[in-house]
Design goal:
Strand order of the largest sheet of chain A: 2-1-3-4-5-11
Helix content of chain A: 40-55%
Shape of chain A: elongated
Largest sheet of chain A: 6 strands, parallel
Structural class of chain A: alpha/beta
Mean pLDDT of chain A: 95
Largest interface: A-B, 53 and 53 residues
Order of helices and strands of chain A: HHHHEHEHEHEEHEHEHEHEEHEE
Oligomer: homodimer
Radius of gyration of chain A: 26 Å
Low-confidence stretches of chain A: none
DNA sequence: CTGAAAGCGCTAACAC
DNA sequence: GTGTTAGCGCTTTCAG
């Protein structure tokens, strides 16, 4: 740093203390005259306060760390936007870290954030297993909030959606349309979101007494390729499904690719329903039916929770919050063709 | 923070200095024995070094600030990924800030980043006009790199693509297909990218002696709605264009919406070519032709430049780097129908 | 209303 | 090899 508070003080003919108080807007701590003089000096010198120094003294950085699995996933894009906006408006900064869905990385990042003295960590875990550093962080008074996937055994805030219910209702909708041969491409079961989405699907079938064909249940990895391959397998079956429920956005793209390649008609030959809504789902042919998650709000609510938790000095007990999903019915789902 | 270096030192029976040296891996500064003892103590105490304190002393934070216009834009998503990955591998952290394409906000954010003592700022400006704080940052030795839009009068690094050339070539391709009635929906001219894309389009027409119909040139704002409206205007013309070139991803979505609404055939009635490639352009009907920008690499190269610049203590002169675009021809562009 | 002094937790000369 | 000392730039009692 070039110019320090000391220099401002000197030039204005006051002490550092006074300058500090004025900058921090402590009421009744300086005469209007002094305030004016100091303000002008700050202006003249282009003085920029050093928040790092202040942080060291106050033991508070007004910085929050965020660990996500993949910044490039549009779902996280919206979540991050919600977090960043909320935090920024409250005067906080965001340190963003991408774990590539790698657990070792997650651990390392949590540690790095601790070293940087973040006031809180918002974390989108890639699996349900709790990491060691997160617990350490929580133990030392660094507020922790989970988003998307939950880690039930960690007693910290969590913001997500009711994946079971969303999945259950979507499946029910498909059944009501008349489908009996329903397939699902799920995400990896080690994620709470994935396993809940699968459970919802299965549970709906069960409740409607539809036998579960194991060949119709495929575990993907949330990537485009995986959606493509699983779909090929599914439509290659002797008796293929008439409805396909896909657990995330990327796999849905892969699925569409496979379906177009085989020149199957949607929804004539097969109905398609995806988890995660994308802004471009309205311009595919046909427009895609999907379950929308309030991604921005997940971020916003998580950030608000963390802020509240900081304010209350961690005296608030952990909350598990589930936001509402919405089933968006467009044109990719319809009754199965009569045979 | 709970446990400090002092406590580690005490418990291990050495001085802070020794602990510090061991943590920083200064060679030949402690006996293997001491190192071992200290390491074990650190482990036992779950000691986490306080980088904020170190930063204050060293006047280097190993943190870089990034200001983008909209985190949710998938283009920036990829750019951010490139930056984050590169920085992380070099041991740097990223403070992410979203300006909502607002210039006042940009200024404010630059200042906030300065206060936080970032070692460098990577900035995706929303207009060509240079801000005051960025100059101040640069003057104080904070390295500055621009991405996407350039601000020519600022003597700092810039990484982007040759928008003029990309646009020129794409237009040329459309003309070679036989189109004579070409329209373009541009972005706001106050961005260097937008105006260069427009210039490329116009220049290609000129070079092929195709008269420029002003009604065929529409200035959008890079949003979905804007793409939709401008396209409606265009296809509502008495003599509508046979080819439409759209300056970004979001407006392309809007354009598609308008075209489907009017039940026009692509590319039969109108050819569509967009700037920015998206991973889902292969599953629209027809798959969309587009100009791909190496978004991840733009981020990576910008981050590498900033890192290099930090290493060389700013003795490197500013570089303006243009990465290669690629014209991806899929199915939304074809020769105009004979009339 | 204002200032002096004592650190926040760490690093970096400078000694020994 | 290791320790002592003096800060980095700011905030915060405590005095007046």
């Amino acid at each position: 740093m070039v110019v320090t508070m000391e220099e401002v003080a000197e030039k204005a003919g006051v002490s550092k203390t006074t300058v500090s108080r004025i900058i921090n807007g402590i009421p009744n701590s300086a005469s209007p005259d002094t305030i004016d003089r100091v303000r002008r000096t700050i202006e003249e010198l282009d003085y920029v306060p050093n928040i790092i120094a202040a942080s060291l003294k106050k033991l508070v950085t007004k910085t929050i760390g965020l660990i996500v699995g993949d910044i490039e996933n549009p779902f996280f894009g919206a979540v991050i936007k919600g977090i960043e906006t909320t935090l920024r408006n409250a005067g906080y900064n965001l340190i963003l870290a991408d774990s590539s869905y790698n657990m070792d990385r997650e651990e390392e990042l949590a540690r790095v954030l601790l070293e940087r003295m973040v006031d809180a960590i918002i974390f989108a875990p890639s699996r349900q297993k709790p990491g060691e550093w997160l617990q350490i962080a929580s133990d030392r008074g660094v507020h922790v909030a989970l988003i998307d996937n939950d880690i039930p055994e960690l007693a910290v805030d969590h913001v997500g959606v009711d994946n079971f219910k969303a999945s259950y209702e979507a499946t029910q909708y498909l059944i009501d349309l008349g489908h009996q041969k329903l397939a699902m491409i799920t995400g990896p079961y080690y994620r709470s979101t994935s396993s809940n989405r699968k459970r919802g699907f299965l549970s709906a079938l069960e409740d409607r007494s539809i036998a579960i064909d194991q060949a119709f249940l495929r575990e993907g990895d949330y990537g485009i390729e995986s959606g493509y391959e699983k779909t090929r397998e599914l439509i290659g079956l002797d008796s293929p499904p008439t409805a396909l429920f896909i657990a995330n956005n990327f796999m849905t793209v892969g699925a569409m690719k496979a379906i177009y390649e085989e020149e199957l008609k949607i929804p004539g030959d097969i109905s398609i329903l995806g988890f995660d809504d994308m802004y471009w789902y309205t311009i595919t042919q046909p427009p895609l039916s999907a379950i929308a998650q309030p991604a921005y709000d997940i971020g916003r609510v998580a950030a608000e929770g963390v802020l509240r938790s900081i304010d209350s000095r961690g005296k608030a007990s952990p909350k598990k919050i589930e936001l509402k999903t919405k089933l968006l019915i467009r044109k990719s789902t319809a009754a199965p063709r009569e045979k």
